[in-house]
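Margin note from the TA: students keep mixing up input and output lines. Inputs are the sequences; the output is the structure of the whole complex. Example:
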Amino acid sequence: MFERYGGTKKALLILLFVVLLLQAGSICKGQAFRPDEWIVREPGAFPLYPDPAVGDDNIECIALNNVYEGLVFPDPIKGVVPHLATEWEAEPGGQKFVFKLREGVKFHNGDELTAEDVVFSMERLQTIGEGFAYLYEVVEDVKALDKYTVEFTLSEPVGPFVEMLVRLYIVNKNQVMANLVTPGQYGELGDYGKRWLLMNDAGSGPYTIREMELESHMLAEKFEDYWGGFHENAPNFIKLIATGEPVTVRTLLGRRELEITDMWQPMESLMAAARIEGVELAYLPCAQNLQIMLNTKRAPTDDIHFRKALAYCMDYNTVADKMYIGSPVAQGPVISMVAGHKKDMEVYEMDLDKAVEELKKSKYYNQLDKYPVELSWIAEVPEEEKIALLLQANAAKIGVKVEIWKKQWGHVIADAMRPETTANATIMFVGLHFPEAGSLLKSRYHSSSCGGWEQMEWLQDDEIDMLIDKAFATVDKDERFAIYGDIQERLVELCPTLWLVDHAEVRAYQEGYLDWPLANHMKAGGEILCPLMGSFDYFRDMKVFPEKRAALLGK
Amino acid sequence: MRKTWSSMLLRRLLQSILVLIGVSILIFGISRMVPGDPARMALGPRTPEWAVENLRKQLNLDKPLPVQYGLWLLKMLRGDLGESLVTRRLVNDDLRDFLPATAELIVVAAIIEIIGGILLGVFAARYSQTWFDGFTRVLAYLGVATPSFVWAIIFLLIFSFAWPILPATGRLSAGIITPPRITGMIVLDGILSGNFAAAWDCLLHLILPAISLAMYGVAQSARITRASMIENMERDSVYAHAAAGVPRRVIMTKYVLKPSLIPTVSVMALDIVAMAGNAFLVEMIFNYPGLSRYGMTAMLNKDLNAIVAVILILGLCFVVVNIIVDFIVALLDPRVAHYGGV
């Protein structure tokens, strides 16, 4: 009898176990906290290092802008505005800057933020040398004059120094010193708190890290004692999720488990996402410019007329209208909305007659078949191939042969080290380091940047170098901007680059229950003054409406 | 007999150690010969040269390759696998986090593969040339021909998007408290600590990635089991047992299924271990923080210590599973052990 029913008994026992487990699950679920009601979630490419002396990637900038604060703040709409520093003075020579700090600012552990923390943050960044440290190589000395006053001394005059400070995030000295791991590579400072700051924060920003899981997510919660306060619908939690897979992102949007997409989603995927009820697209002009760099030290692109011929045969409107929707045609070397961009400049437009005219002036005109143009595009950015094909097709119309090479990013960096190995033309996105024209002009066209991926033109033009140095040494903004204008005009004349489009990030977001002031501003025809990496995702400004989310879920 | 088993185990262990040393030399050499400066890649193009040089020294990259290997081996024997360039943590800590996650995923996938593959194979053989056999055949073709990441996308779109009955990503839902770490496997830790909500929630999160991973193995195991079953059912001894009045259930389990499982077990075991290495796309799609994804990120970023550690762990798994399989096969067919075939 027992043997006969043994199987049935086992099956019943298993069923009972599963039912109990289900029951237990439903009981225990009620005991957990639910951060998903007032949350904004966004995907991104991990690893994420939320240490101000290490991180410098897009997702890290988003995390740092929300968890830490700087002396000044990169407000996308208003520009660089006072933040932890309420006022400052620059000495006329442009080598000394004194900042007055906001009083009563609290770190997440309750300590007060003082000038000592600013000094410590700069020294730590310079000693470690990673992240945004390269921006502050000119800082020779930094000292606390009193509890709320800090003085920076520079090794050479730097007019846009205040704008450069957007990437100096202030860490809590006491908290970091209490979490040093010794021995470490920084002598008595051990590891300078690097290990601890990879999983924790020592900031004063509106959000504080609650969970940090590598290759998974970063969850941060509202810092209730934040000096700037919050409006009542501000998200209580923010979550950066380690994913970028279009199908995953779309699924999460549909389940209302993701509020904003990252900037790297393909257009087809975004269009599909926009068909989900309550989801809309936001077009945000960003800190990047898409260009084709022309090697001025290698035939045939060493000839200025040959370069101009290429510039005239490029179809800029097709790139803007068909490939990078929402991205306007570039108006010169500097992104149009960046402070210091020279407006109303004459730039190159597609005109095959002018292209032929320029080509005839080139020393390579009668031997075009001997001098094909080697054009590289980055294998990791497949969209670039379309641009390569477009230029190839147009160049063929004027008799110029373009050979297309697909190169891995590492390969491009290695080739960029010498002019003879750098391709004639390379399609590349370039970005701002700080929100002013000088950032792009220096990193792109000053001779000091040759040998790196940011300048594959090998321009090495003495006049350009002199003008850039002069602009950086000019503290007066109007004077500085006038020099930036001269540099841009000369660059257009030299034509070392085909400036294609000012890139616009396209994001899908839950318009049905998320109020994103920046997206609204752009929808209303507004402009962006400070398009800095990570500054668009300032979650404190956003508002969430859980009841609207519930209504969308219930449909 | 006991002597045969112990000498067999000893021989296999010695062979395994040699294999692992060989693998470590090979991977250590290859990972360092691939073009690209790992220190520069880790710190980015704008980091000053002095900081990059410091990291090179820290990684011993300024020393000859044999010296680098010797230093790495000494540290490894002390249980220190070095620091990861991607996560900036000790590789030991990374493995402690990522290995249990993948182990948990593979265990669930293995259960699905074992039960699904064998059951489908047995029933396909039992009801050979019926509609069920045809259905199993189609399922097997689909399972073998379709990569696991395609299944992952299909399942995600169906069961998380169009008909959202299962969670889409991660290991736990928002709002579920992670159980205290005992093994690192949340289902097990949840049960052991009485946090059944976490165990259940984690199990729900595992279903789609585990099925996606198991599809290939289920298909392959079903076909092998079916073929072996049909072959064994035709043997004279089976007819003799039936004629002698042995119950059909006994014949099917003892005289048909048992020998039929020998090829299935061998193939299945290697399939299951291979899942750990091949799971990276599935882990990416489901945003699952596992070892396979960690290993792939390490390879793309030339994270030397992490690459060697992940491959050694996978190699170790292969070796251990191979030994276990040999013993299972010997149990199923004692002649294998007796004649020293293992």
